[in-house]
Amino acid sequence: MNKELLEALNILEKENNISKDTLLEAIENSLLTACKNHFGKADNIKVSINRDTCDFNVFAEKEVVETVEDPLLQISLAEAKMADPKYDVGDIIHYPIDSKKFGRIATQNAKNVILQKIREEGRKSLFNDWYCQEREVVTGIVQRYLGRNVSINLGKVDAILNETEMVKGEMFKPTERIKVFVLEVKDTPKGPRISVSRTHPDLVKRLFESEVAEVKDGTVEIKAIAREAGSRTKIAVKSNDSNVDPVGACVGLNGARVNSIVNELRGEKIDIINWDDNPAYLIENALSPAKVICVVADEESKEAQVIVPDYQLSLAIGKEGQNARLAARLTGYKIDIKSETQARELGLFEELGLDYQDGNAGYEDYGNGGYGNEYQEGGDSGTQDYQEEYQNGCQDDGLDGNYQE
């Protein structure tokens, strides 16, 4: 029986990740509970279990007395000397208890104590395992739709992909394998409750870490991410090794690395730009693929004035302002974009002290206040009007991304 118990404990330890010592402790407590149910109290009862062989002994500590008043706590001198003649009045004797004589109810209660401990330790172990996976990307299997939410199987536990964390228009089929970002792991009486996301910006970051070795080992660092899930993402990367091109490392040979991430995100466009400590150069890179005449940035107010060629204005702003909006989130600057014609009409070149006669206005910082927070699109002739207002402190859809525009 003890050999079977040892094998059962080893299996439980391996499959449920519950330590054998914890299980043996649960068995000790269950035997004490059974003794209490059988005798009415168990203050003087001790349980000893050999950790290697699972042999156990249950005994009661009884005081040797002349006249027994409480048979649960005392034993007569005559009975004690039958066990060992050396015992005398006042000695403490370990009196063995036969647990096989316990009643059915006591045995059932002991069984319930063990099962409850196994369930508690299993939930605790599962929670600890998944708590370490918080803010990481995991692969799950789509099970079914729960209303507008999706149940994702992650192995021993299920996760919930809420509608608010799903990319608009993205549909899943049962048994389909997808990658999700673990947002939060909560401990509940029914086990860990895991919330996952497909829209969080860090999903893209973790995918790059898993796909690009240089990002994973820290040679290439992802400095900032701005994402509109399902449509477009901009990331700024910096190399900590002068011999490594950060953009090239992330793109990979023939685009192999970035394409695998794009496929996982189901066609979401990804712009990879070089990070620059100079905010003017960073803003120019962030507005890529549009060409820029000049950028004048104020680091204190986090505002920037950008002038682009007339034919590049629409490209700089992007469809529905997306390119400019993502650039503002990526850099943390409120960006005011003007075409060359608009800049000349407003006298911005003269106001900023820039000479554009030679075709290069250069990059400077200014400290004389910011410009309006509107993007005006005029096309080649500067006659079409388009404006979109941006508020300072605009909050991204991600849980921990506050981007000032």
Q: Between the first and last Cα atoms, what is the distance in angstroms?
A: 71 Å
Label the overall shape. elongated
Instruction: State the strand order across the main sheet.
Output: 5-6-7-9-8
Number of helices: 13
Classify the beta-strand content into a percent band.
25-35%
Specify the structural class.
Answer: alpha/beta
Radius of gyration: 35 Å
Q: Please provide the count of β strands.
A: 16
**Domains, number:** 4
According to CATH, the homologous superfamily of the largest domain is NusA, N-terminal domain
* Element order: H for helix, E for strand: HHEEEHEHEEEEEHHEEHHEHEEHHEHHE
Range of helix content = 25-40%
Q: Average pLDDT across residues? A: 82
**Which residues form runs of ≥5 with pLDDT under 50?**
358-405
CATH C-level name of the largest domain: Alpha Beta
What does the largest sheet look like?
A: 5 strands, mixed, barrel
CATH third-level topology of the largest domain: N Utilization Substance Protein A, Chain:P, domain 4
> Which second-level CATH architecture of the largest domain applies?
2-Layer Sandwich
Structure description:
With 405 residues, the protein is α/β, with parallel strands linked by helices. The protein folds into 4 domains: 2-130, 2-Layer Sandwich (N Utilization Substance Protein A, Chain:P, domain 4), CATH 3.30.1480; 134-197, Nucleic acid-binding proteins (OB fold (Dihydrolipoamide Acetyltransferase, E2P), Beta Barrel); 199-275, K homology (KH) domain (GMP Synthetase, Chain A, domain 3); 278-405, K homology (KH) domain (GMP Synthetase, Chain A, domain 3, 2-Layer Sandwich), CATH 3.30.300.20. Helices cover 33% and strands 26% of the residues. The chain contains 13 helices and 16 strands. A 5-stranded mixed β-barrel has the order 5-6-7-9-8. Strands 1, 2, 3 and 4 form a 4-stranded mixed β-sheet that branches. A hairpin with a 4-residue loop joins strand 13 (294-298) and strand 14. Helix 5 crosses helix 8. The chain starts with a helix and ends in a 40-residue tail after the last strand.
